[in-house]
Amino acid sequence: MKIGILTSGGDCPGLNAVIRGSVLKGIRVLDAEFVGIRNGWKGLVEGDFMTLDRHSVRGLSRQGGTILGSSRTNPFEGDNGGPINIQKTMDAEGIDAIIAIGGEGTLTAARRLTDAGLQIVGVPKTIDNDLEATDYSFGFNTAVEIATEAIDRLRTTAESHGRCMIVEVMGRHVGWIALHAGMAGGAHAILIPEQPQTIEQICEWVMHVRDRGRAPVLVVSEGFKLAGMDEALSTKGLDAFNRPRLGGISEMIAPMIEERTGIETRATVLGHTQRGGAPSAYDRVLATRLGMAAVDAVYAEQWGSMVSLRGTDMEIVSIADATIGLKTVPQARYDEAAVLFG
């Protein structure tokens, strides 16, 4: 069997480990052949391929990014897009099935293509950890580690100058990165999309910290909304899936805090630093296991499925079930963290 592998959407630590796990298991155990699809769905639409063998994946588990490249291309658009044209491209290359590694947008596209008859298995990729059908997704642990280190570093400069520091992390719809990094880094408030807060409440937390002789450090998800805001802050237009590009909420809140409290306030947007660099040991292991499980799902002809982590076990779920809703931060988890605020 000849299997195509693509990585689509935002890059993330652990993508290369998934590729390596799939290729090594497929070649060593199942006598499979692999082809890499460059730049996500774009490469599949345009027929841009590369050979994947044991030599090309050597040492990949510790390498960040993706050797295949990625994009946010919509596979249903363009002259060569759509299931009929894509199937013709696969047939011409002799590709029997595809392993699509990506997040919500990628998996939704994979489900639609599978419904149209293509043979696809998905691997969940999102540092936001927002897919309901898997306990953890690779890249999340690394992103939390990076954000926690940033909080630790910013705390020292905050204390030196008596400033309030706001650290903005990724999290479009859910606040898992902010919650975990904020708790690990000892943040004085954690602001997440699931829990809108008033600027008055935020300033109250900040002033409590100041009154105790400390420099306030806050963590905010990019998708956080102040009470009364209808949409998350977006000033960068839309992506290929018509989703707003978020970022900058910390820079909006910082002057509001400074004006109301008199405390000099600075914002730091971590942005794509959370996606870059080498994956953590946990993410390397998880990504490798997911890649190996994806090959098993291909050989079991479980089209339209996605591999997932439940507890410590690999399971197969339908992509439709995986993308039907988001895994949000429960109220109990936020209440647990809020005990530490202020």
Write a compact overview of the structure shown.
This protein is of the alpha/beta class. The chain has helices spanning 15-30, 41-46, 83-93, 104-115, 140-161, 176-185, 199-211, 249-261, 281-299, 319-322, 331-338, and strands at 2-7, 33-37, 49-52, 97-102, 120-124, 164-169, 189-191, 217-221, 265-269, 305-310, 313-318.
CATH topology of the largest domain: Rossmann fold
| Main β-sheet description | 7 strands, mixed
Instruction: Indicate the percent of residues in helices.
Output: 25-40%
Strand line-up across the major sheet: 3-2-1-4-5-10-11
Average per-residue pLDDT, rounded, comes to 94
Distance between the termini: 58 Å
Q: What's the domain count?
A: 2
Shape, per Cα inertia axes: elongated
Number of DSSP helices?
11
Query: CATH architecture of the largest domain, please?
Result: 3-Layer(aba) Sandwich
Helix/strand structural class:
alpha/beta
Strand content: 15-25%
Low-confidence stretches: none
The total of beta strands comes to 11
Radius of gyration, CA atoms, in whole angstroms: 21 Å
Q: CATH top level of the largest domain?
A: Alpha Beta
Order of helices and strands: EHEHEHEHEHEHEHEHEHEEHH
Q: What does this protein structure show overall?
A:
The protein has 342 residues and is α/β, with parallel strands linked by helices. It has two domains: 180 residues, Rossmann fold, CATH 3.40.50; 134 residues, Rossmann fold (3-Layer(aba) Sandwich), CATH 3.40.50. 39% of the residues lie in helices and 17% in strands. It contains eleven helices and eleven strands. A seven-stranded mixed beta sheet has the order 3-2-1-4-5-10-11, with helices on both faces. A four-stranded parallel beta sheet has the order 7-8-6-9, with helices on both faces. The chain is elongated, with a radius of gyration of 21 Å. The mean pLDDT is 94.
